[in-house]
Amino acid sequence: MYINQISAYIPENIIDNAHFEKLVGLSEEWLLNRTGIRERRKASEDENTNILTIKALENGLKTAPFPSESIDLIIGGTYTPYDTIHTLAHAAQNFLGVSDIPVLSISSACSSFANAIEIVQGYFAMGKAKRAIIVLADHNTAYSDETDKVGGHLWGDGACALWISQERLSESDWEVKDIITGGAGNIGKASEGVFLRPAHEGFMMQNGRDVFQNACLYMGKVTLDILERNGYTLDNLSYFVPHQANLRITKNVAQSLGLSEDKALSNIQYLGNTGCAGCCIALYENQDKFKKGDLLAVTVFGGGYSYGAVLIVC
């Protein structure tokens, strides 16, 4: 299975830390120390999750590795849907104009990147598809409460799209070597650590310490597991691409693995937590620095304590 292309879309509106200092009294120093975030992106009033998705696709269609009419599978991932019936995957299908193919949207919170790729792997293995599109988007600012001092300052908006094929299409394709996904919804405060209940409290993170501890634990563990399962060691790893939740989590996991800071890719400093699109956007942003044969570990952790890793050879 091969990743042929990644595209992304980032909204233009920038929300800096001065906004939250004025709104709720959180200082620039406090925000940088606790989260590493300087600024984040916010969708405009005319944008929603589906529109973010379509704009990411538009940016990729300019250099698409295969024609839209050859797409035979579309998978979407989000936990902040604009429409729970006509989902972002259906919006992508409508935009691409492809009929009579499997189309579904999933949510494993911020781990949806890994689960979406694993679903594509399953369709390929069963002979039900050969060329797929994955779209990942989160419109966090539509759900979050900026006056919430615990988590209201974390969130940014963004989207990405991946073109994936069963067979290699060009020498520039990246090979997906392996995928591990898991759930730890029975561990710690998984059911209450971070949640989004639109009809009740909304978007809340009320057990940040427990989320932090388990994110560091599981992201480190699954990275080691996927390397060992494929006969690699940490010395073989070219880049570590974590879910963009908190710069402290990224640094903690990298340190626990003994990785130098330059191997851990991060964009949360200027995009905020862009949900399940975050690590995919990081791949998109850094693709020019990857060399042929580089080994990448994309490691995710989400609310409900879902987790996973995707091992990629460039």
Care to describe what's here?
With 314 residues, this protein is α+β, with helices and mostly antiparallel strands. It folds into two domains: 2-165, Peroxisomal Thiolase, Chain A, domain 1 (3-Layer(aba) Sandwich), CATH 3.40.47.10; 174-313, Peroxisomal Thiolase, Chain A, domain 1, CATH 3.40.47. The chain has helices at 17-24, 28-35, 49-61, 88-96, 112-125, 208-229, 247-257, 268-271, 278-286, and strands at residues 2-9, 13-16, 39-42, 73-77, 103-106, 131-139, 157-165, 174-183, 194-197, 202-205, 239-242, 295-302, 306-313. It has a nine-stranded mixed β-sheet with strand order 5-4-6-7-1-8-13-12-11, with helices on both faces. Strand 4 (73-77), helix 4 (88-96) and strand 5 (103-106) form a beta-alpha-beta unit. It is globular and about 55 Å long. The mean pLDDT is 91.
Architecture blueprint of SSEs:
Blueprint: E1 2-9, E2 13-16, H1 17-24, H2 28-35, E3 39-42, H3 49-61, E4 73-77, H4 88-96, E5 103-106, H5 112-125, E6 131-139, E7 157-165, E8 174-183, E9 194-197, E10 202-205, H6 208-229, E11 239-242, H7 247-257, H8 268-271, H9 278-286, E12 295-302, E13 306-313
Parallel strand pairs: 4-5, 4-6, 11-12
Antiparallel strand pairs: 1-7, 1-8, 2-3, 6-7, 8-13, 9-10, 12-13
Helix pairs in contact: 3-4, 6-7
Core attributes:
9-stranded mixed beta sheet; globular; Peroxisomal Thiolase, Chain A, domain 1; 314 residues; single chain; 9 helices; two-stranded antiparallel ribbon; alpha+beta
| CATH homolog superfamily of the largest domain | Thiolase/Chalcone synthase
What is the ordering of alpha helices and beta strands?
Answer: EEHHEHEHEHEEEEEHEHHHEE
Shape: globular
Major sheet summary line: 9 strands, mixed
Report the β-strand fraction as a percent range: 25-35%
Structural class: alpha+beta
Distance between the termini: 12 Å
Q: Uncertain segments of ≥5 residues (pLDDT<50)?
A: none
Name the helicity range: 25-40%
CATH topology of the largest domain: Peroxisomal Thiolase, Chain A, domain 1
